[in-house]
Amino acid sequence: MSMKQRDQQRDQVFTRRALLLGGAKLGLFSALVGRLYYLQVVEAERYKVLAEDNRINLKLLAPPRGRILDRFGEPLALNRLNYRVVIVAEQARDVEHTLDQLAQLIEVTDADRRRVMRDVRKKRAFVPVTVRENLNWDDVSKIEINAPDLPGVSIDVGQSRFYPHTEAVGHILGYVGAVSETELTGEPLLELPEFRIGKNGMEKTRDLDLRGAAGASQVEVNAVGRVIRELNRQDAIPGKDVELTLDIGLQEFTRQRIGDESAAAVVMDIHTGEVLAMVSAPAFDPNLFSHGLNARDWEEFLANPKQPLNNKAIQGQYPPGSTFKMMTALAALDAGVITPATIVNCPGHYALGDRQWYCWKYKGGHGSVDLAFAIKQSCDCFFYETAKRVGIDKLAAMAKRFGMGARLGLDIPGERPGNIPTRDWMLATRGHPWTQGETLNAGIGQGMVLVTPLQLAVMTARIANGGYAVVPHLTRAVGGKPAENVKQPAFPSLGVNPAVMSHVFNGMVAVCNDPRGTAFRSRIAEPGLEMAGKTGSAQVRRVSAAERDHDVRRKDAEIPWRERDHALFISFAPIQAPRYACAVVVEHGLHGSDTAAPIARDVLLEAQKRDLGRQPPGRIAGEPKAAG
Amino acid sequence: MLASFNTGRQGMPLLRKIWQINWSLVVLLLVLASVGFVMLYSAAGGSLEPWAVRQIARAGMGLVLMIVVALVDIRFWMRWAYAGYFVALLMLIGVELQGSIGMGAQRWLDLGVTQIQPSEVMKIALVLALARWFHGASIEDVGRLTYLVAPVALVGAPVALVMKQPDLGTALMLLMGTAGMLFVVGVRWWKFALGFAGVIAAVPLGWNLLRDYQKARVLTFLDPTRDPLGAGYHIIQSKIALGSGGTFGKGFLQGTQSHLNFLPEKQTDFIFTMFAEEFGMLGSLTLLGLYLLMMVYGYAIAFRSTSQFGRLVAIGIVTAVFLAMFINIAMVMGLIPAKGSTLPMVSYGGSSLVVTMIGFGLLIGVWVHRDVRIGRRVGED
After folding, report:
1. Which of A13, A33, A222 sits opposite B186 (nearest CB)?
2. Is A35 exposed, middle or buried (0-12, 13-18, 19+ CB in 10 A)?
3. CA angle B174-B178-B183, nearest 5°?
4. How far, in whole angstroms, is CA A154 from its chain's centroid?
5. Mean pLDDT of B224-243
6. Cis ω on the peptide bond leading into residue B50 (within 30° of 0)?
7. Do B129 and B78 form a contact (C-beta atoms < 8 A)?
């Protein structure tokens, strides 16, 4: 083979192979084109969504919480600006040094400092870290003036819940707190770290109304999450204002009138069921909770024998004592087992079987007693006899008709049902049959009968309004519109004969206005404002026969506080055209006439005076306005 | 070297040589480089600093070097091919020594004034050395197994060195580029199969020589999802950027993935992604078209060249550039696993750009000297 032929052969091989190699490269080119087509045309939409997800962060904007107002529009719960001093690490350069300088202006504790340094290390450099919260205006101005010397330090404004009337309405309003794990519902608002929800009281019941709706801000962020700009913004819808039936003036008055006693008082409108005042003392300041209660305060609350965290008006269950005699009288009259003319002899004690039941006036007794006198003087013997005649089941039925023995459905949480015993209940819970002796005890509101102060007020209201099943409520309006539970104020009749009702009604009038009535000393003397009422004392400790027989009952002052009787008083006013019912329970207050009745008198007088010409019924005070 | 501008019997006057330069190819290359300038301007958020300005300066230097290389007589390059290869090999060994002192991956050789990447230089040097070896070989020579020992050694040494860096991408490029050249000189199919088998057999042997951190790097190269916050994350973001560009792109300077830093290393490895995000399918097809056109030029030059050396240099250079382009684009599209590859002529990086342009200088040189006849042995002409 010649050199030339060899070269030709080599050239041919080269040409063929080079074309093959070029073809292979074209193939790879096609693979690239195909992949491009797949990514940029076929899958383009999916990747566009992913790119937007990358780029756009949705930031929730928390709505300002609605206010809680009293019936005249006075704010009871509102949002206060919370000034925070924050530091941004990337602007501060030397965070330690900046904190030193800040500490010369405002107090920065070592704990604050450690927390700040830890957060600075943990978070990205452009995220503000809170140094201190709830600054006063002095501190804020000091920092603002020195701003040039404090690189990276700025004042940030948030909102925190504020209760201007502090403990007077603590039990009703409840408080707000951070969302706990179990309260998460999937609602994104709840996952905001600063978000607070109602934990108790009205804040809890009306939480959804007060909460409002979240707004959203669409921001463009880069790969490390820094916000570049805002793209779109939808402002939050503020929570609705909730207007209560309370008159904060009357509430404050009642709270002050109770003073240091451990007591509960409820004032309500007997026609509408509006609760005008509801006090439980001692109370707590809900502001303590909105900043997060410290452990020491919590321990103190728990250790206090007067139980400040308890709302005694709806959670305290007490034997109603003589205030329950109204039910005994009504049940007996209604059943026809007594008439107003029925006479019972009271020698100071009452025998049933081989046991003696004593009247409170066990020395001498009341003599011959009719119904009017028995109510006026609270004669126990008369009601032992009356209760024996009517029987426990009819008595219990009447008590239930007047709102006892079950929750009334008040619109704050925690209400307790009390207890109205029956034969069936006895068998079911205690496992032994009812005895007649227990009927006698129940007839004077002792034994197993338990009621709450709210139930006492409702019972009184139902007597005062002529026998209508008024139901109490606290919410008057939400967002300027009447609340759902006050749209129908026409309550059904309880079906008790008006004539029967009037005997009891008149009996209560006599208690306060007849010189021999048990509460005559606590009457309202001002013409047209007179009240009617009934005293009661609930035994906490059984008086032993030995004590009674040997007349060694101790002087009141000698009895330890915990063993003293509870003092009760129920009342309504004015007697000509009743409008307000009031129930007062003073724990271990000894006698209803001495401690509870004067409080009720002052409160009812104040209620009547306050209301004169002030408020057209049914008008809503709080117009819808933006909160905060 | 200046003397060689005008040596030999077929020596041309310098002006005629300049006239002979394939200026349309030069323009094509400058267009590709300009795509790089534009994208570097965008990558900096609409600023010439810090990348575009330096890239333009290096491209200017590269252009001068490219023209000078093209004008030097092709026989000069053939004469010095082996010497150049050994210089490149020494540089690679130098990098290896530096690396063993400095721990970790070391690909750059610090020459004091400037840093160069010897593996880039080796891509060109290997093409020249192989072209010279096969220049005088007849089909019979190529058919002898013993004749292939030298070329296998020529590629084996640098591959072993870059593998140790470890730079698996470059090692594969050297191997595949060499395979391409062996293919066009007519090495039998079954020998490729044998070679392939040999490489596979060598894998476990080479694997044991690697240190643990090197093994980890190789594994991450092969499977980026091993490192979900690193390479794997980058590829995912790159695909999002590409896909979201759609048909027409988001517009110049409007690429959200790139400008909000979701896309990493957008000035180097992921510059194609950024381009595709901002200019869409139409833009990326145009860019691919430019590379295709460049390849067509390369093949035309190879077919037109009289000397076997010239043809092999042309095929070798075009194949090397093609492989670099393909690996980079396929990598950013998630077709193949890879790390640390750049897009030739476009990515930021002085060493890569200048060396690539010198390679193209050789290609243009082949065109300028297409009619120069070279004897079978050096000096025999």
Report:
1. A13
2. middle
3. 150
4. 37
5. 78
6. yes
7. no
> What is the Cα–Cα distance from A31 to B241, expressed in whole angstroms?
19
Q: What pLDDT digit, counting tens, does each position of A522-581 carry?
A: 999 999 899 999 999 888 766 655 555 555 555 666 777 777 889 999 999 899 999 999
Domain match, A208 and A116 both: yes
Q: Examine the domain organization and report whether A201 and A321 are in the same domain.
A: no
Task: Report chain A residues whose CB lies below 8 A from the CB of B326.
Answer: 25, 28-29, 32
Lowest-pLDDT choice from A95-99, A202-206, B153-157, B327-331: A95-99
B272 and chain A in contact, CB less than 8 A: no
Please give the residue range of the domain that contains residue A159.
59-244
Query: Are A508 and A472 contained in the same domain?
Result: yes
> Two tokens at A287?
């502001």
Residue A122 lies in a domain: yes
Contact between residue B161 and residue B125 where contact means Cβ atoms under 8 Å apart: no
CA distance A226 to chain B (A): 9
Co-location of A119 and A266 in the same domain = no
Helix (H, G, I), strand (E, B) or coil at A85: strand
Say which residues have a Cβ less than 8 Å from residue A537's Cβ, sequence separation at least 6.
A321, A322, A360, A565, A566, A567, A568, A590, A591, A592
- Provide the residue ranges of all domains of chain B, joining segments of one domain with +: 2-368
Q: Do B333 and A220 touch (CB under 8 A)?
A: no
Q: Please tell me which residue, B235 or A258, carries the higher pLDDT value.
A: A258
Q: Do the Cβ atoms of B322 and A25 come within 8 Å? A: yes
What's the confidence (pLDDT) of residue B216? 74
Catalytic residue among A160, A322, A571, A593: A322
A260-306, pLDDT tens digit by residue?
889 999 999 999 999 999 999 899 898 888 776 777 888 888 888 88
Amino acid at B274: M
In chain B, where does DSSP find H-type helix?
A: 14-20, 23-43, 52-71, 74-79, 81-102, 118-135, 139-143, 149-164, 168-184, 189-209, 212-222, 231-245, 256-259, 271-304, 308-332, 350-368
> Using one digit for the tens of pLDDT, what is the confidence trace for A457-497?
999 999 999 999 999 999 999 988 887 766 556 889 999 99
Taking CA atoms, A27 is separated from A8, A34, A443, B129, B326, in Å, by 29, 10, 104, 28, 11
Could you tell me if A204 and A63 lie in one domain? Answer: yes
Q: Are B329 and B272 in contact (CB under 8 A)?
A: yes
The CATH number for A534's domain is 3.40.710.10
Cβ atoms of residues B181 and B148 within 8 Å: no
